[in-house]
Every structure is written in structure tokens, then in C-alpha cells.
Design goal:
By secondary structure, the chain is mainly beta. The protein is 10% helix and 38% strand.
Length: 259
């Protein structure tokens, strides 16, 4: 009887320690955006030099990272990205965002309420001066029109391909199964990225898209890109987009899963 009680005690103790360890891991989030300034971030806007913040596009106000175009006369393909300084491979990324206001003058129709988080991205400093989008996996954010369906947390693939449902997927974008989100409500988007094995997209806690094995598409990369056609995309930087519609980010945080 004593042996049985001892065994049960060890089982309960082990379970408690395991749960405690799990909770500790869950708490080890890295705040990529500190809520005060753009420290730790580099930005690149097409047509401008590294960290030249044309039109004060990227700014921090009221504790939010904001993308704005009020100093633009017109949006003439000044596509921009703001990159976190560190490279990651295995992680969970959580972004809380909302689209606000009106699209910049002359912004293209497809860019209405359009932004995204670039995963496994090339670095800001490696982009060409006139390069519009980094080679990456794009987790696309979309907001809905007054009518019609327009899911968010979709997949786009600038200079890359993925495997979807067991087959190589070469189409540039694929929709998730998320609901259409209209208005200016906050959205919680999460991305579980496990190197070059599997990537999950989640919206408000629900998995809406899964794919595997991201690779380089040699025909879609800039000249001199260091990875060959078909090379696995195992790691990279994280960046957020500026595509002509104002957007706010109130949280950008990461749980490092590499250990």
C-alpha cells in the first residue's frame, strides 16, 4: 500500500512540475514592439535608402505602432516594411492589428485594407533600393469590404513556394478559412513557424491555414540572391508591411520555440 501511495505521489508531483514548466515556457514571450518607440526595428521603403522613413510612414503614437500616409501626396508604389533586428527559425508570433481610416490617394484597389507579417524574410539591409517586397512567406492581413467575403491570415509567396495539401503550391496567394473581418476591430493573428517543416496561421485562436516546406522560387528572387532555386527556407527575419492602407499594431510578440 505504501508503495502504491508513493507511486501515486510521484505521478502527481511529476504532473504538477510538468504543468509548471509548461506555464513558465508560455510566459517567456519576447516583446518585439515595446510600445514606446521603434527601437530594435529597421525599415525599408521602396525607392529609399535603408531606415529612411519617407513621409513618417512608421511611427509610434498612443502606445501603438502606426502606419500612416497623411504626409504623402500620393501612394506611388512606396511599398514599405519594418523589420525586427533578430533572425528566428522556430517560434510562435502573435500580432494584434486593426485597419483604420481611408486608403492613401492612388493606392491600388487590391491594397485596400491590405497588410501582413513577412515570415522567414530576407533582411532589410539585403533589399535593393527599389525592391518592393522581401523574399519571404507573407502572412497576409486583409479587411473586408461592406459586402462579399475577404478572409484574413492568408498566404502569399514573394520569391517562395510551399507545399499545400501534399503538393507543391506555386500560386502566389491562397486564402485561409477565416471569417471576413470588417470595420476597425482588433484582430489577434498568430503564426506557429517550425523552421522549414510546418507553418500554421491562426485567427482569434482558430487554425485557418496550414502548409509545409517553404522553399526558394529562383524565378522570383532578385539578382544575386544567396539561396538557390528550391533551397529550403529554414529561418529569417520578421517584418510588417506598409501597402497604402493605415494600420495599427498594438502588440507584436514572439515565443521562441527553438529550445
Amino acid at each position: 500500500m505504501r508503495i502504491l501511495i508513493s507511486v501515486l505521489f510521484l505521478v502527481i508531483l511529476t504532473s504538477c512540475l510538468t504543468n509548471q514548466k509548461s506555464e513558465q515556457v508560455e510566459e517567456q514571450w519576447i516583446q518585439l514592439f515595446n510600445g514606446e518607440n521603434l527601437e530594435g526595428w529597421d525599415l525599408k521603403i521602396a525607392g529609399y535608402e535603408l531606415n529612411e522613413n519617407f513621409g513618417n510612414t512608421f511611427r509610434v503614437e498612443d502606445g501603438l505602432m502606426k502606419v500612416r500616409y497623411d504626409e504623402y501626396e500620393a501612394f506611388t508604389n512606396q511599398f514599405g516594411h519594418i523589420f525586427y533586428k533578430d533572425k528566428f527559425s522556430h517560434y510562435k508570433l502573435r500580432v494584434e492589428y486593426r485597419f483604420v481610416g481611408e486608403q492613401a490617394p492612388e493606392g491600388q484597389g487590391w491594397a485596400f485594407k491590405n497588410s501582413g507579417a513577412m515570415l522567414h524574410s530576407q533582411s532589410a539591409e539585403s533589399m535593393g533600393k527599389d525592391q518592393s517586397f522581401p523574399v519571404s512567406i507573407e502572412a497576409q492581413f486583409l479587411g473586408g469590404h461592406e459586402e462579399g467575403e475577404r478572409p484574413t491570415a492568408n498566404l502569399c509567396t514573394p520569391g517562395t513556394h510551399v507545399t499545400l495539401n501534399g503538393e507543391l503550391h506555386t500560386q502566389h496567394c491562397v486564402n485561409s478559412t477565416s471569417k471576413t473581418i470588417r470595420g476597425e476591430e482588433w484582430v489577434i493573428a498568430e503564426f506557429v513557424v517550425l523552421g522549414d517543416s510546418i507553418i500554421h496561421h491562426l485567427v482569434d485562436g482558430d487554425t485557418v491555414l496550414t502548409y509545409t516546406h517553404p522553399i526558394i522560387d529562383g524565378s522570383g528572387v532578385p539578382e544575386g540572391f544567396p539561396l538557390a532555386d528550391g533551397a529550403p527556407l529554414k529561418e529569417g527575419y520578421i517584418s510588417l508591411q506598409s501597402e497604402s492602407h493605415p494600420i495599427d499594431f498594438r502588440k507584436v510578440e514572439l515565443l521562441d520555440l527553438s529550445k
